[in-house]
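Whiteboard transcription, Tuesday session. T.W. wrote the structure tokens on the left side:
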């Protein structure tokens, strides 16, 4: 007796065949074309045939089929004619589970990942389960296993109602969405099917965040709930995502790390954690399995990266799955441009959900749709790729494009540029498109044209040159073509490879140079490296916006706010961020009655005080005063650099703690830096060069001080409408209280500056920091274009 599989290469069928082979049974089977799965099965002992032929079915075979096999299939007909035993794959699964405790995973979405995770946890616990997974476990390189333990983990398939053939010892039910209505006929019948499945399960675990599922389970008063809801038995809280996966709390179990991405996988993880505890697995074993879980093939699977373009692949084909996958990937890649290559799956699904795909894809920056993958379905009259595209285009506009499957790889590759992320998504052959897309992109080898602008008329001109030189060193010439634009201290523009030398050794009386608009507009992106007025204050940002050139950093409005110390202190007060007492005065008002100003100041603020120009940084024009006499001298010194000054109270023995930030929609904060000055004033000459004071990164502060400082820094970053990058500076007093000092909309990037040191402490090289800036510049420009189109 042997088993003959019609459609052996299917992921579910092949898993069952593997278990039979491992149990010593003879396995044969056919499929329409070869595949890696078939090759693996052949190496494991199965007899494999390409193409369906009645002669391949031996007498005395048990013939296994799935719901996808049509009744006119030659092998199926042969089995009927010969009166051979015919087993639906769900019936075979039921037979294989005899004598074991079935742990099933049901739901419209998330079954494969959840099943694989549960199997991995039980393997880690040395329970040696049998399992059938609808995808390859990347760590074990298999989708099926015959274990010696008493647990059998498997997906329960609702698509054809076959999940009702097996009563489970325990089951996880992830969610219910309208799908496979061609079988169920209506949403109500689908819900009744899940209700029956839950009723025949001894220990159901169900997601309370899914309204349809919750309505069924709460009415039945059965099982254990999990989810983000406060009513869940296993409640998820403090969810966050990192570059390595997700972290969340589950009841008293704190900081659970799972090497997957997205809130939907936190739900899957919560379900597995809860069921594993119920099965007697120790929490530490579950945690370890979660940390090392490498996922399954085609579930947000990373396929590779070349020339800073990454490709991921996912099996998702229902709008709910698509939306969850895109959201998870967006949270991973942050502001990088996300290009989704979408292949609709089945005519029936396209018909039933025709208006649901566009909302699911909206989080992408660009979508390329290709032809509907039939999956063996016959075409449905009136349903076509053209119709689906037209309906989606009505909602998505110019974000959506159509490419025939035969032109898909080349069409996508032609629009790619460094830092893009491609997601191929669908249950068809779109999974094969990723590698060719990358190869074709590499053949094009496009570069981004970067404008590096620096210098300027500010007193901080020398600092700008030092920063720009360091940034220039970090620009990868294999990815970027750089044009240097310099501005002299008297406002002349220079362009060319020798700009640094010309600015460092200026020639008196040089010819006035107009802004090289044509050259600027040829650039894809700009990095404006200016410190101080007429540059960092938004002036250059306004020029670049007028020219429609993407650039990194705050826009002209935010830049002007951040460079005005009084304004930022007022914003801090409005947002309950502590500031030292201060008083602002302009030069004209001061000249009218200096004595009255000093008197008012001394009533409000005790000595010692600091006197600062409101629009400058780098400690230029800043001095400390302990007496009226010193105050008058300090005021005159500050008015030498600015027509408005601010006088503020000194924070006694205040430590200077600086938080470096990058991000537009996704704010990232580097480990804080501290200027090691023992509470002394840090003048200009102690910030730069060989005499600069040491900067300690990360700053030696407590965990609570770190958390509070990060929260205050992020609050100020958002309140001042910062974009791209900034550095938020505070004083930390002896009691552990923070006092806001200032915002640097484009912080220094010299050898002794805190910003590069902080990000290097976070693991970023100079080149990676520049890459981040390019991504942020392009992202901000895309957002601006969207706003303009909506006006």
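and on the right, the sequence the group agreed on:
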């Amino acid at each position: 007796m042997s088993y003959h599989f019609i459609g052996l290469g299917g992921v579910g069928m092949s898993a069952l065949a593997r278990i039979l082979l491992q149990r010593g049974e003879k396995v044969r089977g056919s499929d329409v074309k070869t595949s890696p799965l078939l090759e693996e099965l052949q190496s494991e002992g199965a007899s494999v045939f390409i193409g369906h032929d009645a002669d391949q079915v031996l007498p005395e075979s048990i013939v296994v089929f799935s719901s996808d096999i049509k009744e006119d299939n030659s092998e199926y007909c042969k089995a009927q004619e010969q009166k051979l035993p015919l087993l639906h794959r769900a019936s075979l699964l039921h037979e294989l589970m005899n004598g074991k405790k079935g742990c099933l995973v049901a739901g419209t979405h998330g079954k494969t990942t959840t099943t694989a995770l549960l199997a991995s946890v039980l393997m880690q616990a040395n329970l040696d389960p049998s399992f059938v997974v609808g995808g390859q476990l990347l760590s074990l390189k298999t989708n099926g296993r015959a274990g010696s333990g008493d647990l059998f983990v498997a997906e329960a398939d609702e698509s054809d109602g076959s999940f009702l053939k097996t009563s489970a010892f325990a089951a996880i039910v992830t969610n219910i969405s309208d799908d496979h209505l061609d079988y169920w006929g209506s949403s109500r019948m689908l819900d009744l099917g899940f209700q029956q499945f839950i009723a025949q399960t001894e220990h159901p675990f169900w997601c309370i965040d899914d309204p349809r599922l919750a309505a069924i389970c709460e009415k039945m008063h059965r099982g254990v709930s999990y989810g983000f809801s406060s009513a869940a038995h296993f409640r998820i809280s403090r969810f966050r995502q990192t570059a390595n996966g997700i972290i969340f709390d589950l009841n008293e179990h704190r900081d659970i790390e799972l090497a997957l991405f997205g809130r939907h996988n936190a739900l899957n993880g919560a379900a597995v954690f809860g069921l594993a505890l119920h099965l007697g697995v120790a929490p530490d074993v579950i945690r370890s399995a979660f940390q090392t879980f490498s996922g399954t093939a085609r579930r947000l699977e990373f396929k590779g990266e070349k020339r800073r373009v990454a490709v991921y692949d996912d099996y998702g084909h229902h709008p709910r799955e698509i939306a969850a996958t895109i959201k998870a990937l967006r949270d991973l890649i942050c502001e990088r441009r996300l290009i989704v290559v979408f292949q609709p799956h089945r005519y029936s699904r396209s018909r039933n959900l025709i208006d649901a795909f566009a909302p699911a894809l909206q989080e992408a920056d660009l979508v390329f749709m290709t032809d509907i993958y039939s999956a063996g379905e016959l075409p449905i009259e009136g349903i076509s790729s053209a119709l689906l595209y037209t309906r989606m285009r009505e909602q998505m506009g110019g974000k959506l494009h159509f490419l025939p499957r035969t032109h898909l790889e080349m069409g996508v590759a032609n629009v790619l540029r460094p830092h893009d992320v491609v997601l191929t998504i669908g249950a068809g052959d779109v999974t094969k498109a990723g590698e060719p897309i990358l190869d074709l992109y590499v053949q094009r080898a496009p570069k981004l044209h970067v404008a590096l602008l620096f210098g300027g008329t500010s007193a901080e001109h020398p600092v700008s040159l030092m920063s720009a030189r360091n940034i220039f060193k970090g620009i990868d010439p294999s990815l970027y073509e750089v044009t240097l634009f310099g501005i002299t201290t008297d406002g002349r523009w220079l362009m060319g490879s020798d700009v640094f030398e010309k600015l460092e050794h200026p020639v008196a009386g040089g010819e006035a140079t107009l802004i090289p608009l044509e050259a600027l507009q040829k650039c894809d992106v700009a990095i404006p490296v200016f410190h101080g007025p007429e540059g960092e204050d938004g002036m250059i940002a306004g020029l670049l916006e007028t020219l429609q050139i993407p650039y990194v950093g705050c826009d002209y409005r935010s830049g002007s706010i951040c460079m005005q110390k009084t304004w930022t202190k007022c914003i801090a007060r409005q947002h309950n961020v502590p500031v030292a007492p201060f008083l602002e005065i302009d030069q004209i008002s001061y000249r009218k009655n200096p004595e009255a100003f000093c008197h008012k100041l001394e009533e409000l603020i005790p000595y010692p005080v600091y006197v600062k120009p409101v629009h400058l940084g780098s400690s230029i024009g800043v001095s400390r005063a302990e007496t009226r006499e010193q105050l008058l001298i300090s005021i005159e010194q500050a008015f030498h650099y600015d027509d408005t000054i601010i006088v503020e109270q000194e924070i006694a023995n205040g430590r200077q703690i600086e938080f470096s930030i990058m991000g537009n929609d996704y704010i990232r904060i580097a480990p804080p830096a501290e200027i090691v000055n023992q509470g002394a004033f840090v003048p200009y000459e102690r910030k730069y060069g060989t005499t600069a004071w040491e900067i300690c990164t990360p700053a030696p502060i407590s965990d609570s001080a770190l958390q509070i400082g990060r929260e205050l820094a992020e609050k100020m970053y958002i309140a001042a409408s910062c974009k791209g990058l900034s550095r938020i500076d505070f004083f930390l007093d002896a009691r552990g209280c923070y006092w806001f000092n200032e915002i640097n909309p484009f912080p220094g990037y010299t050898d002794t500056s805190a910003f590069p040191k902080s990000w290097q402490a976070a693991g970023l090289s100079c080149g990676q920091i520049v890459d981040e800036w390019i991504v942020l510049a392009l992202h901000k420009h895309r957002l601006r274009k969207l706003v303009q189109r909506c006006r």
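Someone added at the bottom: The mean pLDDT is 91.
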